[in-house]
Amino acid sequence: MPIGPVLVVGGGVVGLSLAHYLTAAGIEVEVVERSGLASGASWGNAGWVCLSHSTPVPGPGVVRYGLRSLGRPDSPLYLRPSADPRFLAWLWRFWRSSGESTFRRGYAALADLNRPTFDLFEELADAGVDTTLRRPGLVHAFLSADEARHHLRIQQVMASGRYDMPEDVVEGDEAHRLDPALSPEVRAAYLVRGEGVLDPRRLVESLGEVVRDAGGKVHEHVEVTGFRTVGGRVAGARTSAGDIDCGSVVIAAGMWSSRLLRHFGLRLPLQAGKGYSFTVELETAPEHSLYFGDRRIVASPIGGTTRLAGTMELSGDDRRLNWQRIVAIARGSRRYLGRWFEDQDDLPTLIRDPWVGGRPLLPDGLPVIDRLPGRDDVFLATGHGMLGVTLGPATGRALADYVLSGRRPPVLAPFGFR
Ligand SMILES: Cc1cc2nc3c(=O)[nH]c(=O)nc-3n(C[C@H](O)[C@H](O)[C@H](O)COP(=O)(O)OP(=O)(O)OC[C@H]3O[C@@H](n4cnc5c(N)ncnc54)[C@H](O)[C@@H]3O)c2cc1C
Predict the structure, then answer these.
(1) Is 393 a residue whose pLDDT tops 80?
(2) Which residue segment(s) compose the domain that 30 sits in?
(3) Separation between Cα atoms, residue 1 and residue 415, nearest integer Å
(4) Which of 174, 253, 287, 409 has the highest CB neighbour number within 10 Å of its CB?
(5) pTM passes above 0.90
(6) Which ligand 1 atom is nearest residue 15's CA?
(7) pLDDT tens digits for 145-157?
(8) Ligand 1 contact via 386 beta carbon (within 6 Å)
């Protein structure tokens, strides 16, 4: 059974969480990141560690919503009209995964994986990781009580006792008082207590520091370009800085993982679910994480500032930042946060760090956390979609168990290679 040294491709939240659990178990680990740590989707995301919102992306009503938005560039869900057969095949599978029962199965699988999440974050902190996690709770804010009730009812049914959901929404002027940043236009809201938020970039950089302190090697600005095999087993990675020997490989390269899989003759239908964020200094920053339900925009209190994020754009895996989307998020947030800008021409001076990132997304919206078929020396952890920060530690721990024991932990059964 080949184990170390284990070479982890990808210095995002998933790769470094895994690297931490492996080094903590005394395994020799080398992480190879082609740019800086957290330079992929793990950089500017919203930083939620949020169990009650951990759902697969395809779900009842999502496809209809997407079709209505076809070609509308300011829509929260944007599908680029395309005749590319691979994209159409992906959409077909996405649609097939959006039925009620598939969605519920996916939700339950994610809930099982997430069960130890907050304990794991505590353990990471005990191990010296600067997780920056706080648990102020999450306020769902709506412009109408009907929408709020509809949303809460769906969440209550899905959660079915797993999470502590409020019984009803708060209405009228009470609603915006749930958080000081909310505007009086918010007419209904509810608070899910205990949900967390963190600075994702700091988490990942700190994971890198702890891995290094524990004796792991973390190579930055080194790209894995291929693999060397001897007698059918992986013996090393070819990189832009020369070959690195190893006994096992874990591909945790986010949305770029499918390219690396081709070296093993496999395909993975990954699409980049592009999302946008930026940071703003509001006069009154939110105390909680905020979800603007009617517009699918989120606001996170991170380091004294507010990070606004949103959009699910399926338009290929380039990282082109479409300024229109930044404007759409800013405009969409105004009814919830008050008029924090008057003229959109002022936005470039008001916002910091406009960012686009690709959520690694498989058509059924669930991650793959598995060994490659027919091999015991190459593993894969990607496809975490909207949930990589939340699921990073749970993924890392369960996959480390798998790599070390050769036996798949039952919690990973729903996340097999497919
Ligand atoms: C707008 C937005 C908001 C989000 N908000 C949240 C949130 O609030 N909570 C949450 O849980 N999730 C959120 N997510 C999702 C989360 O960001 C991702 O699921 C997560 O970052 C994926 O992590 P990863 O490690 O798999 O991939 P990445 O962070 O993309 O890391 C992969 C790394 O692999 C490297 N790499 C690629 N190819 C190679 C190669 N050949 N050689 C070496 N290195 C390579 C890349 O440079 C990259 O750094 C959000 C995403 C977006 C876009």
Answers:
(1) yes
(2) 6-43+201-265+365-415
(3) 22
(4) 253
(5) yes
(6) 25
(7) 999 999 999 889 8
(8) yes
The total number of structural domains in the chain stands at 2
Instruction: Report pLDDT for 237.
Output: 98
Question: Partners of 357 in the beta sheet?
Answer: 275
Among 8, 17, 42, the mutation site with the greatest number of ligand 1 atoms within 8 A of its Cβ is: 42
**Ligand 1, atom 3: closest residue by C-alpha:** 45
CATH number at residue 386: 3.50.50.60
Give yes or no for residue 54 CB within 6 A of ligand 1: no
Mean pLDDT confidence for 380-395: 97
Closest to 51 in 3D by CA, of 194, 147, 148: 194
The token duo for 43 is 């950089």
Q: Is the CB of 138 under 6 A from ligand 1?
A: no
Q: Which atom of ligand 1 is closest in space to residue 48's alpha carbon? A: 8
Residue by residue, DSSP assigns 151-181 as HHHHHHHHHTTSS---SS-EETHHHHTTSTT
CA of residue 195 to ligand 1 center, whole Å: 21
- Mean pLDDT over 238-254 rounds to 97
Q: Does 7 contact ligand 1 (Cβ within 6 A)?
A: no
